[in-house]
Amino acid sequence: MFEGFTRIEIETAGARINLRHGGDGPPLLLLHGNPLTHASWGKIAPRLAQRFHVVAADLRGYGDSVGPDDGGENNLNYSFRAMARDQVEVMEQLGYHEFFVAGHDRGARTTARMCLDHPDRVKRAALIDILPNHHIWTHTSREWALRSWHWSMMAQPYDFPERMLAGIPAQYFMEKKLSKPGIGLGFFDPAAFSEYVRCFNWKTIKGSCADYRACATCDFEMDKADFEAERKITVPLLVIWGARSHTEGVHGDVLAVWQRNYATNAYGGALPCGHYVPEEAPEETLSWLLRHFDGDQGTAGLGRAAGSGKNERASTSSRANGQEAGNSAAESPVSSTASSRASL
C-alpha cells in the first residue's frame, strides 16, 4: 500500500498526527473511520495521487496518531471540532491554506464539522456513508440501536467500555466488528486489515471511546445549535454511501436528509456495497471523487504557498512503506464467511 508515499508525523496544537502523503497536484486530504486507520484509503490513494497531492492522515487517537490523554471538559478534546482543527493545522504545515477533503465514517463527521468551522479552508468536500449527527440522535430507533450498538456502548463513562474492548483479542474484535451480515470480510486488503489489528491498542481504544463520548455530548450540542440557527454546509458537497449499508437501511434516502436540512449544495448517490465504501467499492468511489474534485473549477487556486511545508517533522518510525494495494477485491485475511454481528 501507498507505494511512493512518504510517512511523517506533524505536531498540532493538541495532538501528534501520523500521515502518509504523495503525488503532485491540488491538495486532497483523506480521513478514515472507526476502527480503521488511513490504510483504509490504500486501494485508491495511489491513483488519486496521479492527479492530486494526497494526504492520508490518522485522526487523533486513531492509528499511529496520538491525542490528549484526557477527554477534557465535556469531552471536547475528542470532539469533531478538535479533530477538524488538527487536520487544518496539518494542511497549513504542509503549505496549504485551502484544500479538498474526503472523509469516511468518523472522518466524514470530522469533514462535516470542518466545512462548518473552516469554510474558508475547504474548497470541496465529500462525505462517505454518514448522516448528520443531529439527525441520527434525533431519529433513533430499535433497528438503529441494534445495528449501531457501539455508539451507545463506547459512549459509556470511562473506563467501562475501554476495559471491555481491551479484554478481547484485537483480531477477534476486528473480525466481528468489520464483518457485516451477508458481506463478510473478503474485500479487505490483508495488509490494511493487519494495520487495523495492530493499531487497536489501549491508546486507540481510549481515544476512540472518547470520540464516541464527545459525539453524544459536546458534538451534539454544537450540531443542535447549528441546526436551530439554520447553519448549513455551503461548500460543494458530494454525498455517497453504500446501498447495503445500515446508513440507508435504517434511515432511507441519505442524500435527501443532507439536502433538506444540513447542506445547500449537495449531490451524490448510492454505491453497490456496504458501509466500508472505499474498500468495498474502490472503483466506484474513485470515479465519484475524480468527478467531484478534478476539473478547472474545482482546482483553481489550490497551490502550495511559497516557502511552505517547512514545519514538517519526519517520522522516526523505522517501518517501511508497504506495497500499493491492488484494485480488485483482496483475499480475505480471515474466513470470508464470517458475517456475524459482534456480541460484546
Layout: helices, strands, pairs:
Elements: E1 6-11, E2 16-22, E3 27-31, H1 45-48, E4 53-57, H2 80-93, E5 99-104, H3 106-117, E6 122-128, H4 133-137, H5 142-147, H6 149-153, H7 160-166, H8 170-178, H9 190-199, H10 202-216, H11 218-228, E7 237-242, H12 246-251, H13 254-261, E8 266-271, H14 277-280, H15 282-293, H16 296-299, E9 313-314
Parallel strand pairs: 3-4, 3-5, 5-6, 6-7, 7-8
Antiparallel strand pairs: 1-2, 1-9, 2-4
Helix pairs in contact: 2-3, 7-10, 8-9, 10-11
Structure commentary:
By secondary structure, the chain is an alpha/beta fold. The protein has one domain: Alpha/Beta hydrolase fold, catalytic domain (Rossmann fold), CATH 3.40.50. Helices cover about 40% and strands about 15% of the residues. The chain has 16 helices and 9 strands. The chain has helices at about 45-50, 80-95, 105-115, 135, 140-145, 150-155, 160-165, 170-180, 190-200, 200-215, 220-230, 245-250, 255-260, 275-280, 280-295, 295-300, and strands spanning about 5-10, 15-20, 25-30, 55, 100-105, 120-130, 235-240, 265-270, 315. It has a 9-stranded mixed sheet with strand order 8-7-6-5-3-4-2-1-9, sandwiched between helices. A hairpin with a 4-residue loop joins strand 1 and strand 2 (about 15-20). The longest helix is centred in the middle third of the chain and has 15 residues, at about 200-215. It is globular, with a radius of gyration of 18 Å. It starts with 5 loop residues before the first strand and ends in a 30-residue tail after the last strand.
